[in-house]
Amino acid sequence: MVTASRFSVSMGVRFPANALTCDDMIHARTVEDIEWLTPVFEGQSQIAALALGRPKSRLEYSSGDLETLSEVADHIGTIVSLYNRMDNQIQAMQAPKESQTQQAEINIVAREIAQSISNHPEPEFVRMVEYALRHINDFIALGESPLAEWAQSQGVSHVERGKHLQQWLVAIMESLRPSEKRPAEPLPRAWYNYVVLHDAYVEGVQNREILARLYISEGTFHRTRRNALRGFARLLKEEKTHSVNRSIQ
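The structure assignment produced for this chain is given below.
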């Protein structure tokens, strides 16, 4: 049943569940009044779907529009998961400190949603960031990477530039950590972005092991990693901008 809508399908309209069930974004022209459809997951369970109606002022949506749709759907799943955990903690009379941690995680996700909508990095820059992450423990390749030049990494040699870039990337990645203490597995949704980046690229953990740590499907993992890469690329640009502004001041 449609529970939220804007200039689209009327509230309360019902669709067959099998028409909205999917592992990843689909071109849903077979579903009445819906052009694109992306699932919302909590763990391995699809709990909802987020859809776009047909565009009114152009022929089709851009790739950036569709990436934003997927990313926001991922954040919605995280918010639902966090609120469910908060409800469970309230019922179990958990310590106030844990509730404060949950609220902090929700604030992080809310900020990420706003950033997803307002500022989407170019695909070429995302690919540049992904290349650097794939070589994050290879100082030579990292120092010679396009991202090292973009970030203006310091050093008299490409090896030193690579070390400088690695330290910067890891430090910014740590800012994605929802809290200091990593909870027991399966990890909550708020940890997904940090884990798929840190564990895969910094620690070199195999995908199948990360799937087990998060208890998610392969499709959800690949979608989460795409969204995490875009969010991380956006964060790098913001950090560089702030650094330049601080140096000017």
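Interim note for the steering committee: The mean pLDDT is 82. The chain is about 60% helix and 5% strand.
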